[in-house]
Amino acid sequence: MDNPTRTELEAAAFRRLIAHLQERTDVQNIDLMNLAGFCRNCFSKWLKAAADERGVTLSLDQAREMVYGMPYEDWKAKYQKEASAEKQAVFEKAFERTHGHPHQG
Q: DSSP character for 2?
């Protein structure tokens, strides 16, 4: 497989994953992070980092809107639920393990 084809396939799979996460508003970021070590915010930061590496102007807010399908604050107001203290404690450990530093929420 040539590199352009591989890139197209990877991009299509990424877009499908993002669409899936946009459809599954019932799935909370904290649950994604606790189970898999990444969440919608991670995707947003990865997009921003990829843009930065390529000299493309993309703010974190713009990247979040690409991932969430709406402004981040709107998504939080509509879909984010309060996390239990237990879930938050698991999140802190998962975040530090995945990101190499404590969460600065």
A: -
Token pair for 34: 């606790």
Per-residue pLDDT reduced to its tens digit, 27-53:
999 999 999 989 999 999 999 999 999
pLDDT digits (tens, 9 = 90+) for 56-69: 999 999 999 999 99
Residue closest to 44 by CA, chosen among 24, 64, 21: 64
Q: What is the CA radius of gyration of the chain?
A: 15
Exposed/middle/buried for 100, CB within 10 Å: 0-12, 13-18, 19+? exposed
Cα end-to-end span (Å), the chain:
42
pLDDT, residue 93, reads 80
Q: Which of 24, 13, 34 is nearest to 79 (CA)?
A: 24
